[in-house]
Specification:
With 144 residues, the chain is an alpha+beta fold. It folds into two domains: 32 residues; 97 residues, Alpha-Beta Plaits (2-Layer Sandwich). It has four helices and four strands, in the order αβαββααβ. The protein has a four-stranded antiparallel beta sheet. Strand 2 and strand 3 form a beta hairpin. Helix 2 runs antiparallel to helix 4. The radius of gyration is 26 Å and the shape is elongated. It starts with 8 loop residues before the first helix and ends with a strand.
Length: 144
């Protein structure tokens, strides 16, 4: 047996207003979430970009190799930092690192330069792309 519920005019008005306000609030929260994006880096942090030429047929394999380097860094680096691999809009490959400070970046760079496994992995990426690590452009940005 189905029961039919009859709402009075006042109750329909209240329910309609509630539903309208709820939907407006949902749309407003979506807008507000866009305003809550955090900056890419806090003042004093350093963003490092790596960018190197790589034939299009070698890009996917090279990016997988970069991911292995990042995994190795996370497990072995004496200083922690964030890193993401990717393909630049011009088709070159690379990565973006985020360091807490200039000092932390320099400590990471020193570790990289003196860690044979890390250096060998980086060389392998360059070789896969038919280039050398010296040909990769490395640029730093200090957030303010």
């Amino acid at each position: 047996m189905i029961r039919q519920i009859t709402l009075g005019v006042d109750m329909r008005y209240i329910l309609g207003t509630f539903l309208l306000m709820s939907s407006i609030n949902i749309f407003a929260m979506h807008h507000a979430s866009n305003e809550m994006l955090m900056p890419v880096a806090k003042p004093g942090q350093v963003i490092v970009t790596y960018k190197g030429e790589c034939p299009s047929g070698k890009v996917d394999e090279s990016i997988e190799m970069v991911k292995k380097i990042i995994a190795y860094e996370r497990a072995n680096s004496p200083v922690s930092y964030s890193s993401s691999p990717g393909v630049w809009s011009d088709g070159t490959i690379g990565a973006v690192d985020l360091h807490d400070s200039i000092e932390a970046m320099e400590k990471a760079f020193d570790w990289q330069a003196n860690d044979k496994t890390w250096s060998d992995l980086y060389d392998q990426v360059a070789q896969k792309c038919g280039t050398t690590v010296e040909e990769f452009a490395v640029v730093n940005l200090i957030a303010r």
